[in-house]
Amino acid sequence: MSIKAYRPTTPAQRQKTTQDFDQITTKKPLKSLTKAKKQNAGKNNQGRITVRHRGGGVKRHYRILTHNLPKGLKLTVEEIEYDPNRSARIARVKDQNGTYYYVIADTNMQKGSTFETGDEIAVETSNRMTLEMIPVGTMVYAIEITPGRGAQMVRAAGSSAQLMAKENGYATLKMPSGEVRKVLASCSASIGTVGNVQHQNIKIGAAGRRRRKGIRPTVRGVVMNACDHPHGGGDGGRHGSGKAPRTPWGQLTLGYRTRHNKKTNKMIVRSRHEGKR
Question: Can you spell out the DSSP letters for 25-40?
């Protein structure tokens, strides 16, 4: 995949970039593996806005991905498809019994390629097996946190984790964020790197493009009135000088950790924040 630039016919076109979609082999998804996706505009069941800056956007159909492929399958990639619900590409694959699945496509997948699932298989790119069967130093993606629950970590475009060590029934992984953490060695993972690696280099470039994604404008607090935001008000001079930034409801918004999960703290060997000050 490469980044495509536009001829600068307008100010937005000058900086906007997109993908060339050369890896996608079909525009039509498999109907049996799609379902309707309702737009809730960031509101809860009472109609109150619980997530700001959401609404509008183009209609989408959700692709039903299988993050927990059964063992013992031999799968053939039938198509590489675009998925509007995630940054990665997805692959339409068919097993030896004729059953279709959608899975996250890695950099090695292309139309006609094959891969397998299980523990008694070759250690090759795209193959899926438990971490205890994968050699140390291998790059993996679509990693389970709980055995049998399906892939929950490292699923975004261009991401991969490195298997650092295996000891006492646990595998140590270096995550894309830099965090080093442990997971059970009986958890499954796929070998390789998630495809669409240039996704992070795309420039939105135009406000309308963001709106079509279902993201509404964000207004800075310093340009609001004092009654609407803690940063608001004043005579046009300096705003918030010497004060910590806050949310519209007065809560501190930067400079402190928000993760509170004592159950899994013991699984983190090194935080992604270490060495960053």
Answer: --SS--GGGEEE----
212 occurs within a structural domain: no
Q: What is the DSSP letter of 53?
A: S
Rounded (5°) CA angle 76-34-216: 120
Residues for the chain: how many in total?
A: 277
Burial class (CB in 10 A: 0-12, 13-18, 19+), 41: middle
Q: Kindly indicate the confidence band of residue 275, based on its pLDDT and cuts at 50, 70 and 90.
A: low
Q: What range defines the domain where residue 261 resides?
A: 219-269
Number of alpha carbons in the 13 Å side-chain half-sphere of residue 46: 3
Q: Does the reported pTM lie above 0.85?
A: yes
Q: Which helix (H) or strand (E) covers residue 5, if one does?
A: strand 3-5
> What are the pLDDT digits (tens) for 170-212?
999 999 999 999 999 999 999 999 999 999 999 999 999 999 9
CATH number (domain holding residue 224)? 4.10.950.10
Cα 198 to Cα 158: distance, rounded to the nearest angstrom: 7
Rounded CA-CA distance 138/160 in Å is: 10
> What sign does the dihedral 127-133-135-139 (CA atoms) show?
positive
Tell whether 68 is covered by a domain.
yes
Alpha-carbon distance of 95 to 76, in angstroms, equals 6
* One-letter amino acid of 117: T
Cβ neighbour number for residue 245 with a 10 Å cutoff: 13
Question: What is the number of structural domains in the chain?
Answer: 2
